[in-house]
Amino acid sequence: MAGSPEFDINHPAEMDYPEHERTYSRFLAMTKWGSAAIIAILVGMLVGLIMGAGVIASVFSFLIVLVIAWVIFR
């Protein structure tokens, strides 16, 4: 059986909104750059494995996609 809450539901604690905004902006940055990294890895794999261009072309295509993402996200 559920008991009564141990905290005051009529007077909630103060929120630290600047910290919430910093956390959200970091989350967006991690999501953005994580997506760019995954896309760059997939393009590198496409060039190296499926197109058969080799390791060097795969690494160059990976770096090119990251540079394009940096230019777009800047």
UniProtKB/TrEMBL annotation:
Signal peptide: none annotated. Pfam families: COX4_pro_2. InterPro entries: Cyt-C_aa3_sf, Cyt_c_oxidase_su4_bac-aa3. The keyword Ubl conjugation does not apply. The chain crosses the membrane at residues 27-47, 53-73. The keyword Transmembrane helix applies. Residues 13-47 form the Cytochrome c oxidase subunit IV bacterial aa3 type domain. Keywords: Membrane, Transmembrane, Transmembrane helix. This is Aa3-type cytochrome c oxidase subunit IV. It comes from Aurantimonas aggregata. The lineage of its organism: Bacteria, Pseudomonadati, Pseudomonadota, Alphaproteobacteria, Hyphomicrobiales.
